[in-house]
Amino acid sequence: METNRDDFIIAIRSALLKKGTQQRFSLLSLIFFSIIFLILGGLNFKVINYIKIGINEIVYRSSFIISGPENFVKNNYLIVNEHFDLYEENKKNIDEVNYLRGKDLTQKIIILENIKYKKLIDDYFIEDKETVAKVLIDKQSPFLRSIIINKGSKNNVELGMVVLDEEYLVGKIVEVNFYTSRVLLISDINSKIPVSLQPGDIQAIMSGKDKRKGILQYVKDKNLTEINEKIQVLTSGAGGIFKSGIPIGTINADEDISINEDKVVNFHKDFSQLKYVKVVSFSKEKSFLDLSSKNEVQKIKDEIKETNQQQETVKILLEQKKIADEIRVKIQQENNFLREERVRLKNEILAKKKIIQQDKNQEEEVKFLKMNLYYGHKCRKTRFNSRYKVGTAEYRECVLNKGLN
Amino acid sequence: MNKIHQNNIQQIIYKYIPIILLFTSVLNEFDFNNLGLVYFSFNFSYILIFYYSVKKSQSLGYINIFIAGLFNDVVIGTPIGLSSLMYLMICCAAAYLRNITLRPSLIKDSIFFLITILIINSLLFIGLNFIFDYELNYFDQIINITHTFILYFLFSNLFDFFENTFTGRTN
Q: Domain boundary at A60, A88, A121, which?
């Protein structure tokens, strides 16, 4: 028993510590190195990061070169395949183009409407930075489905930027070096993307499954089974990582939707065939780009301004009317008062005039009587003269003329 | 003289073929470890390292294996140092096997290889899943281990053939 244990210890010691021919390090020391690398890498130790970036640059370039012959063979194989499929594909494409042309106009209108509504709810994003990059390596690791692109921090690529192939979602940037970056594909099991299923506007989380497929998580089965047509899977924009409405893939209504089974999303793109990708970041639009919308908004603004001005004018006019009414009421009251006063004064004047007339008559009477005393005898009719009878108008006139006629 | 010189060059090339194979398998985009097939994948690097560590330990060299591991980590995106550690543990197991083996046999080697890759993949799974928060598929791992084990027989014979034909007999 003891001998066996000794043999074991000797064998282990020999395996770990013995340097072979042309070996500078023992296994044990290299294992220690690896562990140190792992621990320091896990702690984001600066030196390890620099080493990693250095190795990254060397490996990505050399991997690109080493993969050259294989890519050459692969590409040629694909070209030959494509060549054989060309005729059928062309026929199919012509039909599709005709069909799509019909749909194009409707789509344009829908897009414009969509933009308008998104602007209304302040959810309209435009491409902020855009870089086109070449895929250097698309080595599919069992642990991480990712690709390496030939643009890095030198080309303003930043962590979290969205990677698209045409308009379809490919993944996002998870590692940025100076000249290269790593893109985590949406087909990776670790990528969790908030998606929206149309029609129905059902929200879910999608994670990768294999090269051309993803699976939906956290989705209500019941809602899905009610939809009888092909379901489009788009980014929902929840969480703010991806903008909403980037197409991802489809779910076939008849095959993939059944309760208690994984809902499989068929990606639009085959990620193993990526050659060039677009790295973009999105930001909210600050000014409207659409000229017609801009004019419309300006028109509405003008209308609002005009309406406001009119409202102000109406307010002022109402105020003026109120004041005018008050003044009118006051004037009316004053008028009534003055009218009454006028009537009163008129009456007074009439009364006064009457009095004056009476006084005048009395004065004339007094003057007649006085003159009658002096000149009455000259005018009075007697037996000896043919003058005027007392009390007649001629007598009065004669008296007043001092008896001269 | 010329023929001898040519033979020497050939010998040198044959000598470095395992290293070239190792680095190519690590750096190349075509990865047996992930062929894109649902029920088929195997780890060619494990087979290569184990075979040459058992049969011809001086062919690869621990430093090369260590560097290949670092490259592999960078290419597939795992934490740096992890693949190196796994490769070196395979070397460690292979060295132990070499020390205790008196009469080499393919069956015994392959069983030992199976145990080794089971342990290695378990450690890898623990490391990636629990320490570095990577999500792994158990089923894929099992498929990978099974095929790596089965294909060890094929590659072992192929390497034997190559060694016997081009570089002379193995240990």
A: A121
Model-level pTM? 0.51
Chain B residues with beta carbon closer than 8 angstroms to that of A21 = 58
| All residues at 6 or more sequence positions from A233 whose CB lies less than 8 Å from its CB, including other chains | A195, A196, A197, A206, A216, A247, A248, A249, A250, A251, A265
Tell which of A71, A88, A121 closes a domain: A121
Assess: ipTM above 0.90.
no
Contact B58 A30 (CB under 8 A): no
> Are residues A273 and A189 part of one domain?
yes
Given B28, B38, B96, which is nearest A70 (Cβ)?
A: B28
Q: What CATH code is carried by the domain that includes residue A211? A: 2.40.10.340
pLDDT in tens, A236-289: 877 777 777 888 888 876 655 555 566 788 888 777 777 888 888 877 665 545
Chain A residue numbers touching B98 (CB-CB < 8 A): 15
- Assigned fold of B2-167: Arp2/3 complex 21 kDa subunit ARPC3 (1.10.1760)
Contact (CB<8Å) A141/B63: no
pLDDT tens for each residue of A59-97: 777 777 777 777 788 888 888 888 888 888 888 888 888
Residue found by looking up tokens 């984001």 in the block: A44
CA distance A263 to B132: 28
Query: Between chains, do A55 and B34 touch, taking CB under 8 Å as contact?
Result: no
A135 with A266, same domain? Answer: yes
Beta strand residue intervals within A178-275, DSSP E: 181-185, 192-198, 202-210, 213-217, 231-235, 247-251, 263-267
Residue A404 structural domain: 290-405
Same domain as A153, residue A92: no
Of A34, A139, A190, the CB nearest to B135: A190
DSSP state of A140: B
Task: Decide if A23 and B96 are in contact by the 8 Å CB cutoff.
Answer: no
